[in-house]
Design a protein that fits this description.
Cytochrome Bc1 Complex, Chain D, domain 2, binds heme C
Length: 121
């Protein structure tokens, strides 16, 4: 086997190793729409951790529509004093915004399921 092949195989082995150790990652849509400049799953950056957002709206059946408006047009006053700028002011990326809002809202649900399972043990 040539040295190059060995190196390439090692790189793949390295990638395979680490993608398993990461917990929930920011989705590609969040990278593309630059949400990651201000948000992470479990920690506050400029904006609140998405897990905290998700927990806040866990029992709110209207949350998806509420957050669609705020993510698209901008938001302030719900998590502090910093304002979130509009991410889709012209309404041309509503499909992507909805996918992201659903992703955020789903975080606490899967977390809760995990906790309940742990409690059962
Ligand atoms: C420039 C920084 C910034 C960017 C970029 C950004 N956010 Fe935010 N986001 C914030 C801040 C600050 C808040 C808290 C606003 C508040 O207190 O109402 C927030 C709040 C939120 C909330 C909770 C809103 C509420 O009313 O409870 C959601 C959901 C959210 N962001 C999703 C997103 C998504 C999805 C994107 C990418 C499309 C994004 N954010 C991009 C800064 C940002």
């Amino acid at each position: 086997m040539s040295r190059l092949v060995v190196i390439v195989l090692n790189i793949f082995a390295g990638l395979a190793c680490c993608s398993f150790t990461l917990a929930v990652e920011m989705p590609d849509l969040a990278k593309k729409n630059e949400c990651i400049n201000c948000h992470a799953i479990n920690e506050r950056i400029v904006g609140p951790a998405w897990m905290d957002v998700s927990k806040k709206y866990l029992n709110d059946p209207m949350a998806e529509e509420r957050l669609m408006v705020r993510v698209s047009k901008g938001s302030s006053g719900f998590f502090g004093l910093i304002h979130m700028p509009a991410n889709d002011p012209d309404g041309i990326k509503q499909v992507e915004m909805r996918a992201l809002v659903r992703f955020v809202l789903g975080l606490a649900k899967s977390d809760k399921a995990g906790t309940e399972q742990n409690n059962a043990n």
